[in-house]
Amino acid sequence: MTRAAPPRPQAGASYREVLANREFRGLTVAQITSECGDQLARVALAALVLDRSGSPFYAALAFAVGYFPAVFGSALLGPFADRLPRKRLLLGCDLARAIVLAVLAVLAVAGTPLWLLFALLLLTETFTAPFDAARAATLPEVLTDPRAYLTGSALARILFQVNQVVGLAIAGVLVTLLSPRGALVVDAVTF
Fold first, then answer.
1. 188 CB contacts (<8 Å, ≥6 apart)?
2. Under a CB-based contact definition with an 8 Å cutoff, are residues 151 and 61 in contact?
3. Are 175 and 40 spatial neighbours (Cβ–Cβ below 8 Å)?
4. Structural contact between residues 171 and 42, judged by C-beta atoms closer than 8 angstroms
5. Higher pLDDT, 157 or 6
6. SS3 112
7. What is the separation of C-alpha 125 from the centre of its chain, rounded to a whole number of angstroms?
8. Is residue 3 packed enough to be buried (19+ CB in 10 Å), middle (13-18) or exposed (0-12)?
9. Which of 34, 59, 56, 55 is CA-nearest to residue 45?
10. Alpha carbon of 136 to those of 6, 9, 79: distances in Å?
11. DSSP states of 2-64
């Protein structure tokens, strides 16, 4: 008696297949741009604070402030992604972040108290949690095939991890070339 071979698992969708989806491609470009902008704002503010205060501690604090809302804001603001129309929430969060970041760029001058710059970065990043939750909730609607959804989710996670390194490097170059304030203006325009 011969044994039948076990069934072979189905292969997942390829990255090319999921990127062929126009809506997923748009979400992916928005993700990359948004995450690069987040890194740019953090590095620019840290450089600005270091320049103004001369304190590495305050510069590190300025950098860390950009991460606080991701840790605490997700639990508080993430549920809005289920209560509001997702596309409107995505656009609204980006618009709010662009406005606050533009104000931050305008106020990034010598006379502005550092606490105000910290508060504006914190406010800007607060809108990241509902944006990310709405984007994640939109993925199954955009990639309806379970194989495509798994591949798309994996690609989004990979891009997030890559951007943690590449985004910081790009941010460092832009802050060096343009000045911290110039980098903040670039970030506001990318929205």
1. 98, 101, 102, 104, 105
2. no
3. yes
4. yes
5. 157
6. coil
7. 9
8. exposed
9. 59
10. 34, 26, 12
11. PPPPPPPPPPPPPHHHHHTSHHHHHHHHHHHHHHHHHHHHHHHHHHHHHHHH--HHHHHHHHH
* Cα 86 to Cα 136: distance, rounded to the nearest angstrom: 10
- Tokens representing 44 are 């620019």
User: What's the rounded Cα separation, in Å, for the pair 136 and 130?
Assistant: 10
Q: Is the pTM of this model over 0.85?
A: no
pLDDT single digits (tens) 62-93: 888 877 877 766 677 767 667 888 888 888 88
CA angle 164/39/86 to nearest 5° reads 90
Residues 128-157: pLDDT tens digits?
888 888 888 888 989 999 999 999 999 999
CA 164 to chain centre: 10
Sign, CA dihedral 53-56-58-61, equals: positive
Rounded to a whole number, what is the distance in angstroms from the first to the last CA of the chain?
65
- Residue 7: pLDDT over 70: no
